Amino acid sequence: MERKIIFEKNYYTAFNERSTPVETENFLLYQVGDGYYYNGLDIGAHEQYFDIELSIILYNSAYFYADGAGTELKKNDIYVSLKNELHQISAKNTFRYQYFAFDIRENSKFKKYLAGINARNVLPRKALQSREIIDLSGKIISEFMSAEVNADLLDCLLGQIVVGLYRGEEKNRALEINDKKQIALALRAYIDERFLTLNTLTELSAQYGYSYPYLSKVFSDVTGKSLKTYLLGKKMEYARHLLTEGASVTEAAETLSYSSIYNFSRAFKEYFGKNPETFKRK
To answer: Of 126, 150, 177, which one is at a domain's C-terminal end?
Structure first.
């Protein structure tokens, strides 16, 4: 299948740390870009030159890799790539994302936050969600679209992003070391938000930095249900809603991301005791 670029706007590109960046008081900004790719994108493995590179998913999904470990990102997810990591992106479908990469100056007051962001015990997972960081990133893009880039404004925006990353990941760290109830609540919230497209629960391990068996046991201990049972319940209750509202069996299966009508019908019958066709005729 042909792959083509719908648009790829590099507002500023300095491909490595030896190139000329946009300089502000505290930061050296090397890359700012926005790309929309038809039928996928493949950026091969390459070493990350910069202290921080952020990628914000605007449309559809893609896999981002660091040192061979992949994470699926969807709309409004943010991927944090750090210096010296082996970075890679792969998307099979039409995909759009924005990105920017920068260093923090050695004598900057923001340098103290970088160690915390880099530390594995503070940043146990690569993907995060933050409306604040997305808004700040949009302002950086807008600034590069203006007639004249204001370095003071860029410095302020990048500073807020660095502190936001540090605070946000500290919050995630607090969640991980807190009691099991908080972990279970976080797992439930993650499933509640993504159950329409979530078909494998193993991604929870990458998301929360624990093994899947451990997360499954914690969730079961707190809620009395397994993760698999909870996800199935969310899907089936929504399937019942769709069918009640007039959706076809095919439409319901597709909405819930089942690979086939057969798999959907089997799951529905096991859960409700009747197949979806019989349910619709009642």
So the answer is: 177
pLDDT band at residue 8, thresholds of 50, 70 and 90?
low
CA 188 to chain centre: 17
Pair 170, 183 in one domain: no
Residue 125 structural domain: 4-177
Same domain assignment for residues 145 and 280: no
Q: Please give the full DSSP string across the chain, using - where no structure is assigned.
A: ---EEEEEEEEEE--STTSPPEE-SSEEEEEEEEEEEET-EEEEEEE--SSEEEEEEEES-EEEEETTEEEEE-TT-EEEEETT-EEEEEESS-EEEEEEEEEE-TT-TTHHHHHHHH-TTT---SEE--HHHHHHHHHHHHHHHSSS--HHHHHHHHHHHHHHHHHHHHHHHHHHHS-HHHHHHHHHHHHHHHTTT---TTHHHHHHTS-HHHHHHHHHHHHSS-HHHHHHHHHHHHHHHHHHTT--HHHHHHHTT-S-HHHHHHHHHHHHSS-HHHHHH-
- Kindly state whether residues 128 and 236 are assigned to the same domain: no
Asked whether the predicted pLDDT for residue 25 surpasses 70, the reply is yes
User: Higher-confidence residue: 220 or 119?
Assistant: 220
Residue 173 has pLDDT above 50, yes or no: no
Q: Are residues 114 and 199 in the same domain?
A: no
Question: Would you say residue 157 has pLDDT above 90?
Answer: yes
147 lies in the same domain as 194: no
62 with 151, same domain? yes
Q: Over 60: is that where the pLDDT of 174 sits?
A: no
CA distance 247 to 127: 34
